[in-house]
Amino acid sequence: MPGLYPLPFNEQVVFFYNIVAATLWFCCFGRFLILLPLVGRRFLPGGIADFFHVVSLLPLIGSIVVKLALYPRWKKSYLWSLSNGIKMAWLCYGVIFPHPRIARHTSYSILITSWCIQYFIHYSYYAFRVKTKRSPLFLLWFEYNNFYLTYPFALVAEMILLFLSLGFVEEDSIYDYVLRGVFLLYIPVAYFAWGHLKERKRVKYTEVLEKRNVTRIRNNQNGSSNAANPTTATSIELRDIQDN
């Protein structure tokens, strides 16, 4: 099968990381779907919070280890994944973990759902890309279109959890001002993030599909012309016979 060839060590590490990350996000979502109807959202954090918070560190680990250590050349796109990983780690361990009561809110369930779906798709897609240098068309579509659903839900859930955490922080403390500042920055940052995601989709999905369609049409036209006038292969065969 083309593309299934031995990978160099650095790509083996990246492939293994993507497989493990996709599996962990899938397990986290499966655990959430099992626990939610059994215990309800108020008791959900006791059964999933520790696991979910550890899994939420994977984007940060991937940004530091996989992209910086194995691919030392810096790209602007790395800044997006690195900042997003830092934000996720801070939300889990700087906002939710110190104030576990806010995890009983419905927004925590929405956050788990959004992140699990988004990153299961993401790591599954890149596992295919690393191993086969291509991916199924449906997975390509999900990778560059899931943000229309997952990003707004995650954004609203994060803002609600931030707002709820203000009630548990000492008023006028440094951390209180930090939380307020981050909360106020969410909307303008989200505006630019949304533009980045749409541009990313345009470059890596829409334009790629357009080029594929143009190439496919061109190949079909070339195939039709060769079938209508099959002189190329025949002339080569005749030339070989004459030379012999």
From TrEMBL:
Where is it chiefly localized? endoplasmic reticulum
Q: What is its EC number?
A: 4.2.1.134
Residues passing through the membrane, by range: 15-39, 51-71, 77-96, 108-128, 148-170, 177-194
Q: Any one cellular component term from GO for this entry? A: endoplasmic reticulum membrane
Q: Specify the pathway.
A: Lipid metabolism; fatty acid biosynthesis
Q: Which Pfam families match?
A: PTPLA
Keywords, A to Z? Endoplasmic reticulum, Fatty acid biosynthesis, Fatty acid metabolism, Lipid biosynthesis, Lipid metabolism, Lyase, Membrane, Transmembrane, Transmembrane helix
- Tell me which domain of life the UniProt entry assigns to the organism this sequence originates from: Eukaryota
- Entry annotated with the keyword Transmembrane: yes
Molecular function in Gene Ontology: very-long-chain (3R)-3-hydroxyacyl-CoA dehydratase activity
One of its GO biological process terms is: sphingolipid biosynthetic process
Where in the cell is the protein located? Endoplasmic reticulum membrane; Membrane
Group of enzyme by EC: lyase
Cited InterPro entries:
Tyr_Pase-like_PTPLA
Q: What is this protein called?
A: Very-long-chain (3R)-3-hydroxyacyl-CoA dehydratase
